[in-house]
Amino acid sequence: MIFFKRIQKRGKGSGIAIILIGLIGASVSGEPAGVKDFGWSMELLTTPGYPVYEVEIPGQVYQGVASEDLDDIRVYDSQDKMVSHLVQKKTPALQKNSRREYVPVFPVYRLGGVKSSNLSIRVRKNPYGSIVEIDNSDNNENGAGNAAKKIIDYYILDNTKTENGFNELELEWKGNDNGVYEVTLEGSDDFEYWDTILAHAPVFRMSYQGHSIAKSALVFSSHTYKYLRVIASNNAADFVLQKARLKYETESVKTIERQWKKITEAGRDGRAFVYDTGGKMPIDRIRLSKLPVNSGSDVDIYARASEKEEWKFCKKVFVYNMSFGNKNGNKNGNKNDNKNGQKNVASEDIEISETSKRYWKFEVAGQAWENPPVVEFGWFAHTLVFLNSENPPFRMLYGNPQLTRVDFKVGRLIAQIEEREKRPLEKRQAQAGKITIVKGDMTSSGNFLFNKLNVLWAVLVGAVAFMLYMAKSLYTQIQKD
Length: 481
Fold this sequence. Notes:
mainly beta; Jelly Rolls; 4 domains; 6-stranded antiparallel beta sheet; elongated
């Protein structure tokens, strides 16, 4: 039975808040006898005085749950009474109302003998601040004469039509189809002070083994600069910017971060590498690193839930790892630069349909890889929402394959409260504490009856039975004699 307390709040914004206090006598038909019928127990650390708590399920829990949907999770209080709770999947709050728009591009020229630091430009704007014309003809007077070659020094982008923040710039250029360029992006609101947004970021287009590889977008944190300056710092003569498109976010919503598990060791299966995630994580992203340098390969990805199952095909992808740039040292401190100053450009994260398979195989086509890649598996974690029974501390127990999902009506209850209060119900964040073993792995051999503790009991009972049999046999023999 669930009950509520009405608390009168006074002062600014006074009103009646309905606060959920707790749960009494939660019981479910067919549930285990008590807290000892689970594989593991995790402490739930809470702050007193809140009606509802929420905690993100840590990655270690996925290694012990018996159900892919986490149906075997239960919450108990200090009196070993079951507490009403809800396990739900966290879903990312996507950025809303994003749009991409082309912005005007203005090249700024200089003669071959003019240094960039000596350039002077005159910018003519309309009353709204938009650029009408950029004139830098004065730079010709300080050049190496009329015979000097006129080259593009950088590009100005006009972003005065909107005040929305932008976080991505997509470039379309004319140049070498197998060329790699380093681009620096700067921002300003007055043409006098320029801030660096990205320094020496690589962009490229190339063909490799019949595949087209391209990186034309620069991604960064959100900015609102009116003007942008794009500078190509290597092979600049071959880089002719034709179009530029900004990605705007008109309403920024907090996103949910994925959990990641990195695995550096792999087994071999012919040309393939096999990885064990150790659990039932709802994986939807895969990231490969430490690939052979300056190479690209087709890779078939397979998965299976157990070692006894057949491999199931998931996806075919093309992955690559390209290295280029300055070998004289990392002077810019870019995170994509290695210790020798070279830049590594690798394939993007691999999107897959969500699956909780434990074992993964990556089969490489073409030239075999000598060493296994480092693989990271990513997923959006579940959250556990539970009510305060006012008998802390609380524990989350899991790992019993006999349990099925139970609906405690927590979601419906919270929805009713939020509808009445006309606002979201505050859920206090709990902390995941220490995980301890209760019975351990209860799914060994695929059967609850063969968990480790039951095996020990079976051995003990068998030994006692054998001793009784031997005693009876000895007694019978003595009687005959």
